[in-house]
Amino acid sequence: MKRIILAAVLILAVSLSSYARRFVAEGKTYSVLGNYKIEVDDKYVMINGKQHKPFVISYDNSNLEVRVAVEMEKGCKKYYVISDNLCVQYVSNRHYFGVELLSKDLEKDGFRTSDSALNKNEYFHQKAITSHQGWRRDNTKLIAAYYPMLLNDVENLIAAK
User: Fold this and answer.
1) What is the SS3 string spanning the chain?
2) Which of 13, 27, 87, 93 lies most in the core, judged by the most C-beta atoms within 10 Å?
3) pTM of the model as a whole
């Protein structure tokens, strides 16, 4: 009987762990949101008619969760950054890595950049974060560190936790 119970508990533990998010990276934001953690989400996001398995960025001092869907296009890599507070996209190409407003064709999917939530001063500072030739590398760590600075009302995000 003990073996049956032990086997059932092991099967349950293995099946529950398969639904958990997979850890990717962590680091510092140097903002009031604290350190970040990046995981791969188990839920898909539909953008431009394509399903993407996004990364989820969470912060120590806030309940804010940001989803990052990555799409390869000819000559560039687009990172769609989606949260309840602010949606933007980061673009990485042969010349630079930087932030952009979401294009108008994403409004049909329910995503648009809110001007009231966007810190315009920081937005213009992030237009070109780096200039590099390694545009194919993963830039989700840079997004996790720089995205909180784009938010206008960060204090309310901390108070929510």
Assistant:
1) CHHHHHHHHHHHHHHHHCCCCEEEEEECCCCCCCCEEEEECCCCEEECCEEECCEEEEECCCCCEEEEEEEEECCEEEEEEECCCCCEEEEEECCCEEEECCCHHHHHHCCCCCCCCECHHHHHHCCCCECCCCCCCCCHHHHHHHHHHHECCHHHHHHCC
2) 87
3) 0.81
